[in-house]
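Can't paste images in this forum, so I'm doing it all in text. The chain is below; anyone willing to post the predicted structure tokens underneath?
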Amino acid sequence: MVNLMNAEQGLFAFFEMTPDLVCIAGKDGFFKKVNPAVIDKLGYTEQELYATPIATFIYQEDKDITSHHRAALLNGKVLHNFVNRYVTKTEKILWFEWTSLYFADKEIVFAIAKDVTVRKHAEKETEEKYKKFKSLATYFKSNIEKDRKYLTYELHEELAQLAFAIKMDIEQIAANAADLTESSKNNIEHALSVSSLLIKTLQRISLSISPNILDDFGLNATLEWLCKEFSILNNMPCSFEHAYDEDKLTQEVKIDFFRICQESLTNVIAHAKASKVKIRIEEVGEKIRLTIIDDGRGFDVNQQKNTPGLTSIRERTNSINGQLTIESEAGSGTRICVTIAENSAL
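Text version of the structure:
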């Protein structure tokens, strides 16, 4: 009996002195008992709190979600770390994090809450800074892509056309100058060969810098072209597979996926000494995953320095809220995966 009384006295002391908000509420939605912290935080008198439905104090936008969780609580589900907003008597908005338990036999709810307003404001400030940073990153990437398109236009429409005009002039000279020396004929043949190579090189560079095919035909067609171009230029098999809905990706994500593939293939040629490469985009649950695999010499991931190529891949992955994983071992090739949530792709 003495131990029971001591336990009750200890519980009462906790109830009265803890800085956390502690309350007992009835199934009818009214407070039955509150500790001083509740009165201090909300600014109402004890009588006002007992006479007013609890839902009255809840911030309007949080009423529905609170009602939903309360229904689950009354059906026997313990409420852990549920966060909602309350409005004080002075109309200040506070964030509370609740843990609640319903006692069906007595039809009462015992609940404890922490004031997490400072934390929520800090989270909101961090979120706003992140949105601002992401907006700036998107802006800079957009401008870079515009510059790439302009450069592509200059290369393809201006320089390539000039080179083509020179090639035509040389062909005219070759056709109308029969009395040229053998040496001059050889020089003309060489000039024609070089001008043809120059035109093809300008076209290839312009497509590499900013492929119009991405805007016209989409990511899958662009990556198929990229793999074919890579295979021809480097005499190395490069395949592309896809098992996902391309419409789930924004244009920004499509561009970043393409640039990540470009950078990865450049790294393969520069460092991997591989014999084949495979690119795959697939849906995995509620995520979309880009994977680039080569069978090259690999490297120790823990000792790998931040090369410009890997830094670029990492930055582009971060800019689209993706998760980058790099798996590699000496002699076992390299596997680069970029995974994004479907809801962040739109």
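The chain is about 55% helix and 20% strand. Confidence is low (pLDDT under 50) at residues 1-10.
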